[in-house]
Amino acid sequence: xxxxxxxxxxxxxxxxxxxxxxxxxxxxxxxxxxxxxTQGDFMSVMGMYYSGKNSSNKTTVDGSAPIPSFLSxxxxxxxxxxxFNDLHHITVRYRTKxxxxxxxxxxxxxxxxxxxxxxxQEAHDKGTxxxxxxQQEIARKAKLLMRALAHTGIIALVDEVTGYQKDRxxxxxxKILESFIAKELQPWIKTFPDEFYEHLFRLRGLNYPTDxxxxxxxxxxxxxxxxxxxxxxxxxxxxRNSIPKLSSGKRKYHLHRxxxxxxxHPKLREHLASVITIMKLSKNYNDFxxxxxxxxxxxxxxxxxxxxxxxxxxxxxxxxxx
Length: 322
What we know:
Blueprint: H1 2-7, E1 12-20, E2 23-30, E3 35-38, H2 39-46, H3 52-55, H4 77-83, E4 91-95, E5 101-106, H5 110-126, H6 133-149, H7 154-162, H8 172-180, H9 194-203, H10 219-226, H11 235-242, H12 264-280, H13 285-295, H14 307-310
Antiparallel strand pairs: 1-2, 2-3, 3-5, 4-5
């Protein structure tokens, strides 16, 4: 039985070193497409060390999964609870190219690991908790990482440095669309936070209205450009094709209602979090777009600054929660 379980463990198919500022992280893309950073190397680069205390720590957030060693300090517990609802999908066992069994950290959760340490540092500065010098250095590196990644850019970086991007299977686009686009219309839930619109108004040099949920009509185009064109390859086109138009020319439903609940919608929320982070760091819309194009370039096309000429009235929604 144990032998059968080991045979199912994914293997590192592509490996590389990911340079981020002064830090370099060994990373891999596994045979099942999972992107990981090697747990031991990540902890070493960040200045984290295994000890009898944290290696045996079984404190849990959800009552069933142990907190991994790189988050197991007692001072971090409230921030782990804040940023991780589920600890089951943080690390993964895999087989190295040499055949050894190792533990990896899922690349996409690295920004949340950084959030935990950054929040802990802020609490230390306020006197709420006390971090040691080593922990404060880890928090400093976490802040450096967060600035470089702006949340989700790590996936593209891992693909690039490992060479996986060049050898991606020809049917990758089909698989992406199958995972992102739902076959049935999903229930409406508010997806775009007010914060997104507040910053969009600010960056466009407009006053944010508090007495109406209506937005300028061209915000629909901006949202397609900022969000859906950068979410995954071909997603915007597929959403447009799957949602019919009304006689007015507008789409019958919000685009996000055709995103899958297990992949599409969570990825949209992750992307929104990253976009809002970039908005906060931007002085005006041009500054924001320059940063956005670096962190989240549009998939498969060249951006045009003349959005008025490309505006499609059918994709506009003046109501909240696009």
